[in-house]
Write a structure and sequence with these properties.
It holds the Pfam family PGK. Keywords: ATP-binding, Glycolysis, Kinase, Nucleotide-binding, Transferase. It is a single chain. The chain has 242 residues and is an alpha/beta fold. The chain has a single domain (14-233), classed as Rossmann fold, CATH 3.40.50.1260. The chain contains 10 helices and 9 strands.
Length: 242
């Protein structure tokens, strides 16, 4: 940082490509602009939601974080991942989305199991309505109805930013939701949409599930830094280059 402050400095080609792609999606997106968020914890995505809630036309939520949204809507979520301390904040997001005319898309059905899959323990996936999760079951993916819903919402977009898997994609029985979202981005890209796969787990998922990298407009390599960019934060490494 100090060296860059004292001597001539410039961004490398990869950084330039990353910043251009993320800026194009968040600063002046072609609309409809859809943000797809997943991953395990809603607390990891608070900044992204807060920054994009007044920029996006549509917010699609899946992954472990969705159960805090479902609980905030009054649904029982069984033994699914739940962040009780974020419930009030999530209720506020739901109200803000409604007030701002942002379409909030949540799963209508989920794939549940008796617990988190561990080792060689057999899994017994079962599809249930999102508002009827049994008390002893854990949600581990979005269901078939939601897979089609999410796919169709993505294809009906001109700009899509996706960060976070829809389920435990490493286990084949709980990978279909993430596949459906990835396919949605590929299909949207094919008809002219600008699509970004956020770094980290999402980028790993598209590679592990066999999707071609050229099926998307941009696959971020930024990891945590790209998440901070989507949160609207000033990145020190970019600030010093100004």
């Amino acid at each position: 940082y100090d060296v860059a402050a004292d001597l001539p400095a410039a961004a490398g080609l990869l950084v330039e490509k990353e910043v251009k792609a993320l800026s194009k999606a968040t600063e002046n997106p072609e609309r409809p602009f859809t943000v797809v968020l997943g991953g395990s914890k809603v607390s990891d995505k608070l900044g992204v939601i807060e920054n994009l809630l007044d920029k996006a036309n549509r917010l699609v939520i899946g992954g472990g974080m969705v159960f805090t949204f479902l609980k905030a809507k009054g649904y029982e979520v069984g033994t699914s991942l739940l962040e009780e301390d974020q419930l009030e904040k999530v209720k506020g997001y739901i109200e803000t989305a409604e007030k701002n005319g942002v379409e909030l898309v949540l799963p209508t059905d989920v794939v549940v199991n008796a617990g988190f899959p561990a080792g060689d323990t057999p899994v017994a996936p079962e599809v249930v309505a999102a508002d009827a999760i049994p008390a002893d079951k854990m949600g581990l993916d979005i269901g078939p109805e939601s897979q089609k819903l999410f796919h169709d919402k993505i294809v009906d977009s001109k700009t899509v930013v996706w960060n976070g898997p829809m389920g435990v994609f490493e286990v084949p029985e709980f990978a279909a939701g993430t596949k459906a979202v990835a396919q949605g981005l590929v299909d949207a890209t094919a008809v002219g949409a600008f699509t970004i796969v956020g770094g980290g787990d999402s980028a790993s998922a598209v590679r592990n599930l066999g999707f071609p990298e050229d099926g998307f407009s941009h696959i971020s390599t930024g990891g945590g830094a790209s998440l901070e960019f989507l949160e609207g934060k000033e990145l020190p490494g970019l600030k010093v280059l100004e």
